UniProtKB/TrEMBL annotation:
It comes from the Eukaryota. NCBIfam families: PPR. Belongs to the PPR family. P subfamily. It comes from Turnera subulata. InterPro entries: Ankyrin_rpt-contain_sf, PPR-containing_protein, PPR_rpt, TPR-like_helical_dom_sf. Residues 106-116 have a biased composition (Basic and acidic residues). Residues 117-137 have a biased composition (Acidic residues). Signal peptide: none annotated. PANTHER family: MEMBRANE-ASSOCIATED SALT-INDUCIBLE PROTEIN-LIKE (PTHR47939), OS03G0201400 PROTEIN (PTHR47939:SF13). This is Pentacotripeptide-repeat region of PRORP domain-containing protein. Keywords: Repeat. It holds the Pfam family PPR_1.
């Protein structure tokens, strides 16, 4: 039996501490949750060959000569048996029986919430998610680069063929996964048997087929826990590749650590996937620390991981750090390639330094790396976005003259798509004509892009003209072209023509797809015909099309906007029954509609029903219901729901507590509000600015200033609020408690700022409104003592009030303060007094 280099220290520790042996031998996993946004009419590519999905200008990352080596790592089949003894189940295993076949244990549940045990040695710094980046973060790893060692630049990348995605075993596994909400021992046993028949590449296909990456991660962990099965190394890389397209950075990091525990060779590409996932989650510091992890693991950096680091820095708008990283690469002997420079060109364009991008393109040939067409496409895309169309022509000429890159079909298509993307339809049409004059045959994609651009501009006549031109030239429009026209007609409110367009598609031999029908349903719902849209969706089987998650979402929101909440809930139930789950945002919109109508019990029942059916109900949904109960004055129900959140492991956030604190304060239940505030702070939650405003308002309203000051001190220890005491003084003034406000003025005047001056002005105006100009005068004097200049017009009012009350000395002194500081000429003094 062989172990990886990282396994022996863990075994020695386990031998010294037998009670920790379970942690060594048990592996669990739970993915993090993230919200996904979907475009109603856009199609998001499900698979990508590269760990980070570049836009079209980064296509050079995908090289045809780079393929994944599917050879297995040596000694992968030998693993430590990672199983715990559960009573007599281990005996059954020794007798040859499969533990899982005796029933669904908690260990083998597909939806189990296990996490990988992480030892202290594996914990790394920077896990706070801070976005502050030190100049040396990620750069130090290049210092240890071994120049003498020969580098292997072959890239490990998992590419699955279409036939593998359509394999019967893959389709059956995916079908069983879709039924996970209603799993039983029989279904899990069926999938366990199918799993043992899957080849490694088919397992990768199952992972890549999942629309929700969290589900793919759960399947990965579930399969890893099965008896007599171990993931092939290619499966780990496929899982990391899937996670690199998401913000599930913690899940990617756990998979990387699991590879180390399994003794699987971790190449730089594996670390690259984790780095990109951290980058997508906005954790730049953690992304760069992946390089340090790689260094500790003894993995030499190569050009691929360096390009990934440059890309991550560019996408985080840290161009200066990306430039320093490239300089460090060259110092240690890693020569940048065209991909590296294209990343920098993209970075220059992101910060609107297009001249520097052009200069870099001009310097690339002297650095032994001439620019490719992607280099020019990047700048062309920037110029199109900022409507600098004339410069696009100049750049095209430079591409031909300086780099000897002749425009081809791809060049023209790229330029047409860039222009259409930013609604330059007329210019795109001119480029199309120019390409045809040079002998290039325009395809459906280019025509469809122009048609779609005209439709988005509302120019339907021009769009129809282009479609007719396609017929004349023998380039028959496809379903994408028709759908763009149909969508455009719905946008301008021509629903009758949209219906006719749907029928014409059948006449021309172009069958409408789900996107086509969804576009029409969206138009109907936008124009208040959601009931008709609902009927069309009910007849989908007769029309031979199947609604998807976006279709259900469109109809549901249409019914919701029209106030037909019960029908909208029916659509959600049907949606879940078909295996599509609404997002937390969609659930929250329906809950808000119930709350606005005062139907709190219905809102709570709907949320509980979604939760029981496996929908992704989050803390925001619970907070919305709690806030609704608070608005209705039903605090007992709101507090009860808060307790329920802890029972089902849905931890409330600061906004949840703020809603309850506000409601308790409104009812005068200050002691309970105080207890809830302390509980929130005890849970490690930082108060938000809304929390501060809420607490200050309610405590001042109930004249609990002393209690407020105590609670503010504790809140400030968790999260500083610069204007907390300013808010207290202003709120006390609004409630007429000027005496308490004056006592707190010294806490505001510790720092002389404009915010403090405004607070003092509020207090002075409150004193004037109550007819106490002398107190207002005292506030002004305290401001002068702190080098704060009061408002001159306000002081004029104070001076007049003092003169009318027979206090000329104070009035003269106030004006004299302005004269002393040069804010008022001496000749104006007498004029102001008797004005």
């Amino acid at each position: 039996m062989s172990f990886g280099s990282n396994t022996y220290p863990a075994i020695r520790k386990a031998a010294a501490n037998p009670h920790k042996f379970r942690k060594l031998c048990q592996v669990h996993g739970t993915p993090s949750l993230s919200d996904a946004k979907e475009n109603i009419f856009g199609l998001t590519p499900r698979f990508s060959a590269h760990p980070f999905a570049f836009n079209s200008c980064f296509s050079s990352f995908s090289s045809g000569s780079e393929h994944y080596s599917s050879s297995r790592t040596d000694n992968i089949s030998d693993h430590v048996v990672e199983r715990e003894d559960f009573g007599g189940f281990n005996k059954l295993g020794q007798m040859g029986f499969d533990n899982g076949e005796c029933g669904m244990s908690e260990e083998s549940r597909f939806d189990g919430s296990h996490e990988i045990e992480e030892s202290d040695e594996e914990e790394e710094e920077g896990e706070d998610g801070s976005d502050s980046v030190n100049d040396e973060d990620g750069l130090a790893v290049l210092n240890s680069f071994n120049r003498s060692q020969q580098r292997r630049e072959d890239i490990w990348r998992v590419e699955i063929e279409e036939e593998e995605f359509r394999h019967p075993l893959v389709r059956e596994i995916c079908r069983l996964i879709e039924l996970r909400s209603a799993w039983n021992p029989k279904l899990e046993g069926d999938m366990r048997n199918l799993l043992r028949s899957l080849k490694p590449r088919l397992v990768c296909a199952v992972l890549m087929c999942q629309a929700d990456e969290r589900v793919a991660l759960k399947f990965f962990y579930w399969a890893d826990r099965q008896w007599r099965y171990r993931h092939d190394p290619i499966v780990y890389y496929a899982m990391l590749q899937v996670l690199s397209k998401t913000k599930l950075c913690q899940g990617a990091r756990r998979v990387l650590r699991l590879m180390a525990r399994r003794g699987i060779l971790r190449r730089p590409e594996a670390f690259s996937y984790v780095m990109v996932s951290y980058s997508r989650a906005g954790k730049l510091r953690n992304a760069l620390q992946v390089l340090n992890m790689m260094q500790k693991a003894g993995v030499e950096p190569n050009l691929y991981i360096c390009n990934t680091a440059v890309h991550v820095l560019v996408m985080a708008n840290r161009l200066d750090k990306a430039l320093r990283f490239v300089e460090r690469m060259q110092l240690v002997g890693i020569v940048p390639d065209v991909v590296t420079y294209n990343c920098l060109i993209k970075g220059y364009c992101n910060v609107h330094r297009v001249e520097d991008a052009m200069e870099l393109i001009a310097e690339m040939p002297f650095k032994g790396c001439p620019p490719d067409k992607v280099s020019y496409y990047t700048v062309i895309g920037f110029l199109c976005k900022h409507k600098r169309i004339k410069e696009v022509r100049v750049l095209m000429d430079k591409m031909v003259q300086d780099s000897k890159l002749l425009p081809d079909q791809v060049t023209y298509n790229t330029l047409i798509h860039a222009l259409c993307k930013h609604q330059h339809s007329d210019e795109a049409l001119k480029i199309l004509r120019e390409a045809e004059e040079r002998g290039f045959q325009s395809d459906k994609v280019s025509y469809s892009s122009i048609v779609d651009s005209f439709c988005k501009e509302g120019n339907m006549d021009k769009a129809k003209e282009i479609v007719n031109e396609m017929y004349r030239k023998g380039c028959a429009p496809d379903v994408v072209t028709y759908t763009s026209v149909l969508h455009g007609l719905c946008r301008v409110g021509k629903l009758e023509q949209a219906r006719k367009m749907l029928q014409q598609m059948y006449k021309h031999g172009c069958k409408p797809n789900t996107v086509s029908y969804t576009a029409l349903l969206h138009g109907l719902c936008r124009n208040g015909n959601s009931s008709e849209a609902r009927e069309m969706m009910n007849l989908s089987e007769e029309e031979w099309w199947s609604p998807n998650a976006i279709t259900y979402s469109v109809v549901m929101h249409g019914l919701r906007r029209e106030g037909k909440l019960s029908e909208a809930c029916d659509v959600v139930r049907e949606m879940v029954g078909k295996g599509f789950f609404p997002t937390p945002v969609e659930i929250n919109l329906l809950i808000q509609s119930f709350c606005q109508e005062g139907k709190m019990e219905e809102a709570k029942r709907f949320m509980e029903e979604c939760l029981n059916k496996g929908c992704a109900v989050n803390v925001v949904n619970f907070t919305t219901v709690i806030h609704g109960f608070c608005q209705k004055g039903n605090l007992e129900a709101a507090l009860s729901l808060l307790d329920d959140m802890y029972l089902i492991n849905k931890h409330p956030d600061a906004f949840t507590y703020t809603a309850l604190i506000d409601a308790l304060g409104k009812e005068g239940r200050i002691e309970e509000a105080t207890g809830l505030t302390l509980k929130m702070l005890g849970k490690g939650l930082d108060p938000t600015p809304v929390t501060y405003r809420t607490v200050i308002h309610r405590y001042c309203q109930n004249d609990k200033v002393d209690d407020l000051l105590k609670i503010l001190d504790k809140m400030q220890s968790r999260q500083k609020c610069r204007t907390a005491y300013n808010q207290v003084i202003e709120k006390l003034c609004s409630f007429g408690n000027l005496e308490a406000a004056d006592k707190l003025l010294s806490m505001v005047l510790r720092t002389a700022s404009r915010i403090d001056a405004n607070t003092c002005h509020v207090l002075m105006e409150s004193y004037l409104a109550k007819g106490i100009p002398l107190s207002a005068y005292n506030v002004a004097c305290r401001m002068f003592n702190r080098n704060l200049i009061p408002d001159l017009k306000l002081c004029e009012k104070v001076s007049k009030k003092l003169m009318s009350e027979g206090k000329p000395q104070e009035a003269d002194n106030l004006i004299l303060r302005f004269v002393e500081r040069g804010n008022l000429a001496p000749s104006s003094k007498q004029h102001l007094q008797w004005k």
